[in-house]
Each structure stands twice: as C-alpha cells, then as structure tokens.
Amino acid sequence: MTTVIDDLAQLRDTVRGWTRAGERVAFVPTMGNLHAGHFSLVRLAREHADRVVASVFVNPTQFGPNEDFSRYPRTPEQDVAGLRDAGCDALWMPNVDTMYPFGADKAVQVRVPGVTDMLEGAHRPGHFDGVATVVARLFLQVQPDVAVFGRKDYQQLAVIRYLVREMSFPVEIVAAPTMREADGLAMSSRNQYLTPDERPQAAEIHRVLTSMRDAIVAGTAREKVESDATRRLAEAGFDVDYAVVRRQDLLEPSARDEALVALIAARLGRTRLIDNLEFQRPASAG
Ligand code: PAF
Questions:
Q1: CATH number assigned to the domain comprising residue 236
Q2: Domain shared by 34 and 121, yes or no
Q3: Rounded Cα–Cα distance for residues 35 and 142 (Å)
Q4: Which of 29, 48, 165, 193 is most open to solvent, judged by the fewest CB atoms within 10 Å of its CB?
Q5: Active site residues
C-alpha cells in the first residue's frame, strides 16, 4: 500500500510515527515518469530500511531557460502503480508552493562549489544549484535515515555526497547501479524520445565507454582515449558534449588514480543522453 501525501504536516506525522517505532526510513527522490530504473532504486532502498518514501516533484529550479520544464512528462497514475508494486510505503508529492513558498525565483539557494562547474554543470549552467536546492529541502521535509541515488547521474551523486558531507545532513547516501537494456543502453526517461532508427544507435554510448575503460587499463594516454571516443561517437552520428575519463570522487581529470570513471554526454537527433562506467585502473597500467 503506497500512501500518497501532498501535505507536509501529514508527511512529518507519518515519518515520525515510523521513526518513533524504531523503524529506519529510506528515501528515493524522483521527478516522476518512472521506469524500471527508478523501481530498482526503490527495491534497493527497501534493503536498507524498514520503510521507503519516494518523492515525485518536477523541480523548476533545475531546468535551464532552453530546457522544457512545462513539457517534462508527468505520469502520476502510472508512477503510483509502479511504486506500489516496488514496495514503496509513501509517495511525497509536494506542490510548488510547498517547496518554494515565496516562489521558485525567490528560493533560498544551495550552491555546491567546484564539482558543479564542469561537465554537466558547464553544459547546463545552474542545473546543479537547482538540484542541491531541492534535495536539501526534500531531506529536511522527509528526514530520512538513508537516501538512494542512481549512478547513472554520476555527477549529481557527487554533488549530493558533497552537500551531505559539507552541511552535515544526517542521511546515509546509497548509490544504485545503472539499469540497462539488453544492448547496454542505460535506462532513462529520455530514451522514449529516440526514433526507431536512433534507438539501436544509442547503445554505441555504452560500447564506447567499455572501449575507453579497456584502453586506459591497457595503458593508453587519457587524451588519446578521450579523442578516440569523441571521434567514434561523432562517426556514429552523435553530437558529443564530452567523452572523458575522470577521478571517481570529485571528477577531476586524472588517469593516474586507480578509481576512475569514463563519462559521456552526447546528443542523438533531439535527444541528449548521458552515461558512465566506473572502473579501477590497475597500478601496473601505463
Ligand atoms: O535525479 C532526479 O530525478 C532529480 O535531479 C532529483 C534528484 C529528484 C532532484 O530533483
């Protein structure tokens, strides 16, 4: 049974009741239009807690002026049905007035420095300020013990980890593995915009990520790995924003560290796709 809650006092009563009874509460924040990837986050949350709260809130402050906030897909009935099947206890669906009582343009802003300026942050200025601003609010509203974020949005995960550590939020962050289609394409709400011709091509991103990992592990220089990946994606019809190898923690450029991640953002037709692959570089490589 998933209780749908849109009133903050009711949310607080519900969560307080659970924590007073000694139950651990997990939280899965989303913007709705849920697919199998999101439901896997809910199932993972279940493994870490007695109760799971999910939220659906299409957050206006993380959309840029050229990104279509009003056309973001909203599928509440489908979302509730899927959350129920995935074992979610409560769905928090705040409206904009609850989230931003003085209006989204007058919101107190939370800004994480450094890691927000590169990669996605460089291509979507202000995006991570909006994410940090809403996630801080969601944590204060729900007050979970643990929160689950997908590794698919790798930089977002780094931003949230920084936010939690820096502001001492008493929330444990769990990173969930990326769910993939059979050909390796990472599951995403955006995949529905791919045309039938583009859909098989989109799996090239995962193949290129795998080649980037193999090349670094084999000792190829990072710059060459990145330029080869960019060329291969361009030849496959992508408009590439970045194809890079970074350190896992704060995403700085280095191929010397052992814990690395290859990250790609590229446009296929009108659809912008992102994906990544974590790997360990053996100390002996290169
Ligand atoms: O990953 C998302 O869906 C959003 O960025 C989040 C974390 C729910 C904040 O709006």
A1: 3.30.1300.10
A2: yes
A3: 23
A4: 165
A5: 38
Do 14 and 124 lie in one domain? The reply is yes
* Nearest CA owner, ligand 1 atom 5: 131
CB-based contact 76:56 (threshold 8 Å): yes
Distance between Cα 138 and ligand 1 center (Å) = 10
26 and 65: one domain? Answer: yes
**Ligand 1, pocket-test mutation among 156, 164, 187, 189, most atoms within 8 A of CB:** 156
- Judge whether 181 lies within some domain: no
Number of structural domains, the chain?
2
pLDDT for 75-98, tens place per residue?
999 999 999 999 999 999 999 999
Atom of ligand 1 nearest to the CA of 58: 10
Question: Do residues 10 and 86 share a domain?
Answer: yes
- Residues 159, 110 share a domain: yes
**HEC states along 182-202?**
CCCCECCHHHHHCCCCHHHHH
Q: How many angstroms separate the alpha carbon of residue 240 from the centre of ligand 1?
A: 23
Q: What would the pLDDT profile of 96-145 be if each residue is shown by its tens digit?
A: 999 999 999 999 999 999 999 999 999 999 999 999 999 999 999 999 99
Cβ atoms of 2 and 91 within 8 Å: the answer is: yes
User: What is the domain extent for residue 137?
Assistant: 3-176
- Phi, psi at residue 223, to the nearest 5°? -60, -40
Cβ of 153 less than 6 Å from ligand 1: yes
